[in-house]
């Protein structure tokens, strides 16, 4: 066959030393050693998350934000509600890095105070959603059958309720405060998490590799730790990461309706809402700082969530 | 001898991934004659599907890229064709069938629509003519009530029926070459046999040349005229069906044959091939099968063997064919 | 398909019923009842309230009569404005809010889908990264922040467009832009990822192997399948747009339904809050119902199946 010509024997092949043709000792280990070193699920996920620069930037931003939320109000000489008639509506300066508002309160201090509120609301909402969702979705998926059917019908109806309208209604009744905002956000907020947990449990319950582990006589605990947890946690972690910005947005949104954290405490939403009346007069800093931090925080959580989604997806493992 | 319809020459294909460049196909040479069925056999990941997809330039680019070599279809180099010209060849001169009939049909379009759209794209036919031709095709592949079935959606068909539709779809423009990528793997055994019979029937009636990609030697035994065995991106042995099944030369081919049950050799033990194929991120320098080869020699891990021509149709890349290796094996046996 | 529609219809009615019930009992939980005399401003209002809510009857009877008034679309009087009823506020506000909403949905859908498809086709190119970074920004910037930024830049600084009210097409540009950016970004991202997934499907390979033009492969074979997830989240997006109108109408001083709702909340005008909430919910649930039907038509398994079935 002409196509194969250049593959055929040539002089270089003739000059190969004869002893190279001695049969080799068969070494099974060598055959197996070709496989690449295996990384654990989390190591692999972390490696891939680190490669995602945008997600890592978001992660670093959030850490810095958390640090500033703790020490920010503390390093500032002003308190969150300290009004000073002499310092009304000051633009950013050495004394007031982020300027002051119409009561002469320091925007820098209030911004970090607002970070505390926003992060707290966001994290609490994510945690509570997580606990309710895991219990509800876990039971639904694990029990299956009629229990699952009933629990899922309930979810389907709750899912149809307009989220923010229910939150507004609850806050009108309970009156706005940090506690009631978190309650209102989680009353129907856990539904999405429950759905995801149920889906994961269902999918894994019947999965072949779980059956395989069982047939090898693996203990239930080991099955859960080695097989169920890593594969289930991915989507749950992603959902939690994406709940936080939703909650932060909701809190800020409620502030615009007069249902946010009440004065003298500050949240970013309240600060932005208060600043609405003065943007026409050019006091840009009043709006800029809270608006910037709401957006940046939501952006950071969103890109981190996306990054986690890619990093934790077992289908993308390579 | 018959005319060559397809000549693949020193084909190299790589895929860029996050982990580096995977050299999926590393210097493949293949010929296909008019009216024959060539089976490409090998484990998953050996490059057989990539080779087949590249004939119609259907590998996703990027990340995939034809690095080197040529693919001559009736003398025309597919690697140098313009996209537009390529579209005129796809479905008309060359057709392709994919592995899973459950996913090869678009769930939101009717079967009739999917059958006729190729025809209407490439030939000047009215809808009525196209429909009539599609009904003929469905008859040919053995679908009952074709008129009614044309209006239905894929989910209303069983797996075997869908694969028949996929085959009808591939044949509707009367191609000269049909590439079937694992066409029976996703099907039940009884359905598999029916589909293979269908392939034989179609070839008899239309004279189409077929490239059949499979890892299943049972399938090969039923339909292939010639067989190419691929391992780690290279064709390690080619021969007629008889040559490969009765005089296999490459240890990998022998290993493949030993690992499937055969009815004609009673009492033979099934022997699996130990180990796994090499990592194609950094393929070994010598013969890629060395690490798993029961007869490996020093030279195997250093230099890739040259091709030994055993007959007009039988070629093998293996150092055991070298007279120096025979010398040693003779001393061992004595 | 008919069973499918009926099933969705039942869900719709149940959901509206639950919201109405929830609203009624939550309002009655407010210490000292929301309708007692201290909260109302004058006798005429008190008269209206008693007439509508039958405050002298026991709670159960009140509840039945309340449900009846909702079925007849009578949402009761306002506490703060004796001459107004919730219905009269809705009648004035709804057409304006609807106009804002329709434009928002249209622009978000068209530009979101276009952006998503474009990014998917240019996967991993610079254009893809840019489009998706813009999309994440669009999701991350809350609509009220975007609204104020737009007012400050385009209305106050550059004076290109009017900053407030709702009297000409030019007035509509900024509010629609502020409201549509978020949903558009969500649609773009979803379209992209679902398009990318669809493009790896075997039936796309098959379509390409038939020699169809890239345009036909994308529009005929990929897009319809890729848009299914977009249709599924339209319900959530519509809810977001609807609640978004509250804030946007407040910021742009648009006399829509959202503005009355927010005023109602600020003044604790409970009948207005109750009536508007129920109306909003019913409207939204109806929209979800329409979305479900649209989905049914896209998916042949639902369209043709006699028993219906959701999967």
From TrEMBL, chain A:
The chain crosses the membrane at residues 54-75, 117-139, 151-172, 178-197, 236-261, 287-308. CDD domains: TM_PBP2. Pfam families: BPD_transp_1 (PF00528), OppC_N (PF12911). The keyword Membrane applies. Keywords: Cell membrane, Membrane, Transmembrane, Transmembrane helix, Transport. Residues 115-305 form the ABC transmembrane type-1 domain. This is ABC transporter permease. The lineage of its organism: Bacteria, Bacillati, Bacillota, Bacilli, Bacillales.
């Amino acid at each position: 066959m002409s196509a194969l010509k250049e593959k055929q024997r040539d002089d270089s092949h003739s000059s190969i030393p004869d002893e190279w043709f001695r049969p080799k000792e068969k070494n099974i280990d060598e055959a197996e050693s070709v496989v690449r070193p295996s990384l654990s699920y989390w190591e692999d996920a972390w490696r891939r998350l680190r490669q995602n620069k945008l997600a890592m930037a978001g992660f670093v931003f959030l850490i810095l934000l958390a640090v500033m939320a703790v020490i920010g109000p503390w390093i500032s000489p002003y308190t969150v509600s300290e009004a000073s008639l002499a310092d009304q509506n000051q633009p950013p300066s050495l004394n007031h890095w982020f300027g002051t508002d119409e009561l002469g309160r320091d925007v820098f201090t209030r911004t970090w105070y607002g970070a505390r509120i926003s992060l707290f609301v966001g994290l609490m909402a994510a945690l509570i959603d997580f606990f309710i969702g895991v219990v509800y979705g876990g039971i639904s998926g694990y029990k299956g059958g009629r229990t699952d059917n009933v629990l899922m019908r309930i979810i389907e109806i709750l899912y149809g309720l307009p989220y923010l309208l229910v939150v507004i209604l609850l806050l009108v009744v309970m009156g706005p405060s940090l506690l009631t905002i978190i309650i209102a956000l989680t009353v129907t907020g856990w539904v999405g998490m429950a759905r995801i947990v149920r889906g994961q449990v269902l999918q894994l319950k019947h999965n072949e590799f779980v059956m395989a582990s069982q047939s090898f006589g693996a203990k239930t605990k080991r099955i859960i730790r080695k097989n169920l947890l890593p594969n289930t946690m991915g989507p749950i972690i992603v959902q939690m990461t994406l709940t936080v910005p939703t909650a932060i947005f909701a809190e800020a949104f409620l502030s615009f309706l007069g249902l946010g954290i009440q004065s003298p405490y500050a949240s970013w939403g309240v600060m932005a809402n208060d600043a609405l009346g003065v943007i026409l007069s050019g006091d840009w800093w009043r709006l800029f700082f809270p608006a910037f931090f709401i957006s940046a925080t939501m952006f950071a959580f969103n890109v981190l969530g996306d990054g986690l989604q890619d990093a934790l997806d077992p289908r993308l493992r390579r | 001898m018959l005319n060559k319809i397809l000549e693949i020459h020193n084909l190299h294909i790589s895929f860029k991934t996050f982990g580096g460049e995977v050299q999926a196909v590393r210097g493949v040479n293949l010929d296909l004659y008019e009216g024959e069925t060539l089976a490409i056999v090998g484990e998953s990941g050996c490059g057989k599907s990539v080779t087949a997809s590249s004939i119609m330039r259907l590998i996703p680019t990027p990340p995939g890229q034809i690095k080197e070599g040529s693919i001559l279809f009736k003398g025309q180099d597919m690697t140098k064709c313009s996209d537009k010209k390529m579209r005129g060849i796809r479905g008309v001169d060359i057709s392709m069938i994919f592995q899973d009939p459950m996913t090869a049909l678009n769930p939101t379009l009717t079967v009739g629509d999917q059958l006729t759209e190729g025809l209407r794209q490439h030939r000047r036919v009215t809808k009525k003519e196209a429909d009539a031709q599609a009904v003929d095709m469905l008859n040919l592949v053995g679908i009952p009530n074709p008129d009614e079935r044309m209006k239905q959606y894929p989910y209303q068909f069983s797996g075997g029926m869908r694969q028949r539709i996929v085959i009808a779809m591939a044949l509707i423009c009367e191609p000269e070459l049909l590439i079937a990528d694992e066409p029976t793997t996703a099907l039940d055994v009884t359905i598999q046999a029916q589909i293979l019979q269908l392939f034989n029937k179609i070839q008899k009636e239309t004279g189409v040349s077929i490239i059949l990609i499979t890892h299943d030697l049972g399938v090969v035994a039923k339909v292939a005229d010639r067989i190419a065995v691929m391992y780690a991106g290279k064709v390690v042995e080619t021969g007629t069906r008889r040559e490969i099944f009765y005089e296999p030369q490459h240890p990998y081919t022998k290993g493949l044959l030993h690992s499937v049950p055969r009815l004609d050799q009673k009492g033979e033990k099934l022997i699996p091939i130990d180990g796994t194929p090499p990592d194609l991120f950094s393929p070994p320098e010598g013969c890629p099968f060395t690490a798993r080869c029961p007869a490996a020699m020093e030279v195997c891990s250093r230099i890739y063997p040259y091709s030994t021509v055993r007959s007009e149709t039988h070629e093998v890349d293996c150092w055991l064919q070298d007279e120096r290796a025979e010398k040693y094996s003779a001393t061992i046996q004595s | 398909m008919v069973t499918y529609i009926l099933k969705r219809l039942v869900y719709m009615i149940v959901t509206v019923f639950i919201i109405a019930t929830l609203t009624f009992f939550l309002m009655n939980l407010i210490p000292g009842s929301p309708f007692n005399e201290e909260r109302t401003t004058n006798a005429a209002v008190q008269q209206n309230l008693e007439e509508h809510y039958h405050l002298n009857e026991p709670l159960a009877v009140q509840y039945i009569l309340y449900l009846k008034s909702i079925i007849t679309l009578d949402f009761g009087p306002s506490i703060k404005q004796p001459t107004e009823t919730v219905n009269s506020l809705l009648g004035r506000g709804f057409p304006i809010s609807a106009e804002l909403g329709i434009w928002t949905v249209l622009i978000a859908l068209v530009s979101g889908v276009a952006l998503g498809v474009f990014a998917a086709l240019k996967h991993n190119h610079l254009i893809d990264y840019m489009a998706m970074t813009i999309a994440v920004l669009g999701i991350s910037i809350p609509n009220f922040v975007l609204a104020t930024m737009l007012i400050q830049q385009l209305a106050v600084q550059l004076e290109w467009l009017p900053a407030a009210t709702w009297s000409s097409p030019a007035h509509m540009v900024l509010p629609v832009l502020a409201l549509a950016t978020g949903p558009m970004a969500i649609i773009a991202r979803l379209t992209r990822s679902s398009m990318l997934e669809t493009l790896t499907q075997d039936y796309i390979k098959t379509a390409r192997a038939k020699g169809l033009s890239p345009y036909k492969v994308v529009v005929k074979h990929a897009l319809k399948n890729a848009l299914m997830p977009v249709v599924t989240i339209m319900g959530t997006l519509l809810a977001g747009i609807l609640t978004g109108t509250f804030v946007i109408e407040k910021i742009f001083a648009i006399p829509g339904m959202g503005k009355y709702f927010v005023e109602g909340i600020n003044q604790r005008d409970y009948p207005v809050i109750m009536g508007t909430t129920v109306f909003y919910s019913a409207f939204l649930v109806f929209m979800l119902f329409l979305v479900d039907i649209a989905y049914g038509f896209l998916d042949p398994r639902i369209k043709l199946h006699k028993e219906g079935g959701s999967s």
